[in-house]
Specification:
- The protein is mostly beta strands and 568 residues long.
- 5% of the residues lie in helices and 44% in strands.
- Among the domains are: 131 residues, Immunoglobulin-like, CATH 2.60.40; 75 residues, Sandwich (Immunoglobulin-like), CATH 2.60.40.3080.
- The longest helix has 16 residues.
- The chain is globular and about 85 Å long.
- It binds CU-O-CU linkage and copper (II) ion (CU) (2 copies).
- CU-O-CU linkage (C2O) binds next to strand 7 and strand 32.
Length: 568
């Protein structure tokens, strides 16, 4: 894109939006029950009057329905991909089996249906779903694919909280999009820094009528890069009642709340007695911390490149409305008080720590001062064929993330909710003291330390992901994968118990030797779960020629037992 075109884009947007009347906030359709049908489809939306913008949506033109799920229920979700390209749907925040998680190893081909089924084990919380295919996550999310999930449970139901969806319990999905001079979304990561179109629930310049009482907002930052410093236009305090994975033990009163990509917070805003007034939920861009995407300026260090177009993006460092609230008459039975306490506990029992890991966020070939990537975790860029961490089922682990780059990164991990122990060496503030699955790690040696337990789901074959939730960074290499293995179970990675494999790593041939002679079939799968070779064993041992395999991790299954080997 040339500068002239970019300037046209910025002018185009400025003129289009100054002339715009306000738009009523779209409230995504809510679906309840245990069986869901989701169709990923092409759509179009009139963001700018008179211009139809091509989008992607789920059961509609943009975003997807809000799924309302009950803890303990088993759900089945049929996801139809009507696009002409592969995608996936990941259940962000959910504690579910790896094969149901919808990461990059679970593609949904064009025309195909994927039907994950899982039991809801999480606390009452606001979760979300979005595509997660390597190389198209950014594009598919930018084009409109994402949806919210509300999980309900008995503990939440016992509290006197607003919970009438779309009335006093309002979903807010914050995103910015890159719009070109024709009013079309530009899904090319090279121009990601031009994310100038602000959407709340897919609505530009949004307003909503809210009753004059305590109103709950379930906020999700579904932006590909941008963080927001959330606050009210009148600077009144609001109460944070929940973070990524559930409610807090008690509300935390704040006037500013930093939200990085992937994070969710539930807040209560007291609009009592304000009928007829207007107040806005703002992004106070001027309060976004140093070196966090959304602040006025982020400079590379030591000769790195600046983020393309960042300095031309008028949203950076700016204060702007995400939702204008027109306060209308209260409902018949409003919630009028903010509960003093919420749920009993939001912490893992950390009396025994089984293992500790360190993850360093670093730069790749862009040089040590790069803010544009490529980025690495523990010195390597993401590779679909490499399992970076192997975790024993049921282990309580402490992870320390250190950011060696000059830009902040929101670290996200699948499968679990964690408790933040320390942020830059300090205890986290109260609103970050509960269940989290994303933590923003500040630039220039910022650290985050968290504790979590890897329970319930072992699978030596299908990995879970951990990554930066700035999608440009995730796709730029800042992702790793882990498998959870059961050291005692038949599905675990067991070597030298039923059989042994050697050499490991291997380059040409592997030899498989049974502990007890017999007749068995052998299958070898690659990291995506595809069977790449089968053989039989009669007696004690056999040898397999693997010289044609590409380098990476492979899984050998003999009978009910799976073991891992590495092809060099
Ligand atoms: Cu929101 Cu790996 O995902
Ligand atoms: Cu996730
Ligand atoms: Cu990042």
């Amino acid at each position: 894109m040339q500068t002239s075109k970019i300037l046209t884009t910025i002018l185009f947007l400025a003129s289009a939006f100054s002339a715009l009347a306000q738009n009523q906030l779209l409230i995504p359709v809510a679906l309840t029950g245990t069986n869901f049908d989701l169709t990923i489809q092409n759509g179009e939306v009139e963001f700018v009057p008179g211009v139809m913008t091509s989008t992607l949506g789920i059961n509609g033109n943009i975003l997807g329905p809000t799924l309302i799920l009950e803890k303990g229920e088993t759900v089945e979700i049929d996801i139809h991909n009507t696009l002409d390209e592969i995608t996936t749907i990941h259940w962000h925040g959910f504690h579910i089996p790896a094969e149901m998680d919808g990461g990059p190893h679970t593609p949904i081909a064009p025309g195909e249906t994927w039907s994950p089924t899982f039991t809801i084990l999480d606390h009452a919380a606001t979760m979300w779903y979005h595509p997660h295919l390597m190389h198209t996550t950014y594009k598919h999310v930018m084009m409109g694919l994402a949806g919210l999930v509300i999980i309900k449970d008995a503990e939440e139901a016992a509290l006197n909280l607003p919970r009438t969806y779309g009335v006093d319990d309002i979903p807010l999905v914050f995103q910015t999009k890159v719009i070109d001079e024709n009013g079309q979304i530009n899904p090319d990561m090279d121009v990601a820094g031009l994310d100038t179109l602000v959407l709340t629930n897919g609505t530009p310049d949004a307003y909503f009528d809210c009753p004059a009482q305590i109103v709950r907002f379930r906020m999700l930052n579904a932006s590909s890069e941008r963080s927001y410093s959330i606050g009210l236009s009148n600077n009144a305090p609001f109460s944070v009642i929940g973070s990524d994975g559930g409610l807090l033990t008690s509300p935390a009163s704040l006037t500013r709340l930093l939200m990085s990509p992937g994070e969710r917070y539930e807040i209560l805003v007291d609009l009592s007695g304000m009928e007829g007034e207007t107040v806005s939920i703002m992004n106070h861009g001027s309060d976004i911390p140093f070196r966090v995407y959304g602040t006025e300026s982020i400079l590379p260090m030591g000769g790195g490149d600046p983020i393309p177009y960042y300095d031309q993006n008028h949203l950076n460092g700016a204060n702007f409305s995400l939702l204008d609230i027109n306060v209308v008459a209260p409902t018949e039975s409003p919630v009028t008080e903010i509960p003093a306490t919420l749920v009993a506990s939001t912490s893992w029992d950390t009396s025994v720590i089984d293992n500790e890991r360190s993850i360093s966020m670093g730069t790749g070939s862009g040089g040590p001062g790069s803010i544009t990537g490529p980025f690495m975790l523990n010195g390597v860029e993401f590779d679909m064929n490499v399992i970076n961490e192997v975790i024993d089922l049921d282990d309580m682990e402490v992870w320390t993330i250190t950011n060696q780059t000059p830009i902040a990164h929101p670290f996200h991990i699948h499968d679990i909710q964690f408790n933040i122990l320390e942020l830059n060496g300090q205890a986290p503030p109260p609103h970050m003291g509960g269940w989290k699955d994303v933590v923003l790690v500040s630039a220039q040696m910022g650290t985050a330390k968290f504790v979590t337990r890897f329970e319930d789901f072992a699978d030596p074959v299908v990995p879970y992901m951990y990554h930066c939730h700035i999608l440009v960074h995730e796709e730029g290499g800042m992702m790793g994968q882990f498998v959870v293995v059961d050291p005692n179970g038949i599905n675990g990675v067991i070597e030298n118990e039923e059989f042994s494999i050697y050499p490991n790593p291997a380059s040409d041939n592997i030899k498989i030797e049974l502990i007890n002679a017999g007749e068995e079939t052998i299958s070898v799968r690659d990291i995506s779960g595809r069977i790449v070779m089968t053989s039989n064993i009669f007696g004690v041992s056999t040898s397999m020629d693997i010289s044609s395999f590409t380098a990476g991790v492979y899984f050998v299954t003999v009978g009910n037992t799976t073991a891992r080997f590495i092809k060099e």
